[in-house]
Amino acid sequence: MKTRKPHIILKLAMSADGYLDNEEPFLFSNEKDSTAVQKIRGEVDAILVGSNTLRNDDPSLLIKDPSIVIERVKKGLTPQPKRVVLCGASPLNPNAKLFNDGMAETIVFRSVNAKGDEFFTDLVKVKTYSSDRCRIDELCESIYQLGIRILLVEGGASLATQFIESGLVDSLRIAYSPKLIQNKRATKILTANSILASMHLHKIEYLNDMYAQTYRSNQTSTE
Length: 223
Ligand SMILES: NC(=O)c1ccc[n+]([C@@H]2O[C@H](COP(=O)([O-])OP(=O)(O)OC[C@H]3O[C@@H](n4cnc5c(N)ncnc54)[C@H](OP(=O)(O)O)[C@@H]3O)[C@@H](O)[C@H]2O)c1
Description:
Elements: E1 7-14, H1 31-43, E2 46-50, H2 51-57, H3 66-74, E3 82-86, H4 97-100, E4 106-111, E5 124-129, H5 136-145, E6 150-153, H6 157-166, E7 171-176, H7 192-196, E8 199-207, E9 210-217
Parallel strand pairs: 1-6, 1-7, 2-3, 2-6, 3-4, 4-5
Antiparallel strand pairs: 7-9, 8-9
NADP nicotinamide-adenine-dinucleotide phosphate binds at residues 12-13, 20-21, 28, 49-53, 56-57, 86-88, 90, 133-134, 154-159, 162.
């Protein structure tokens, strides 16, 4: 049976030498790119990240531009997209911003074997799956069942790789920083080229010293 899934947008930022993260803090974005990303967040029902991104970056995953929030509400959307975290059985930081700021609904998908749910406040919904690893198609189906129809996947590398390999991505936006990381221990996505065979280049954005390419799946009929 075909997976019922949201429309999936995968967003990645890469250094000029193809890395996605670094041991030292690295700013992948510039102001124009951040504005463009805010607009993408404005269109989606939820944003998904992997648990290491939460541990390492502690993102809020919020829309900060009030005019985008107003436009969402006019369209009947929630002011902020829901925030979804995928984790296995490893512990999460209960002090992470998105578990405590009360700015948007936050949902954690975690293994039934994970411990520490008592740390979550009422602001956090926990959904469990039965093994230590969750299949991406099953995760997408569960996210769809929560009423989420457009999902933005914001990394990190492990999650992005699994989405690419799942073939479920409808739109892939890669923003390229002009800066080099030059650290062989940093992460690259090795499978990124293989996905492009089943996609076509839809748009290039020129963002001062950066640019971003958006690819669309050849299978996606919408938009
Ligand atoms: N350049 C970019 O576009 C970008 C975007 C976002 C983040 N990042 C960077 O990426 C780094 C983190 O990337 P990462 O690859 O280490 O981690 P990640 O993708 O953020 O998270 C990986 C973790 O998510 C959980 N997970 C992933 N797939 C799962 C599955 N199928 N079932 C159950 N749990 C699953 C596991 O959690 P457990 O550990 O709980 O088992 C796993 O350790 C951060 O340092 C961040 O700065 C880069």
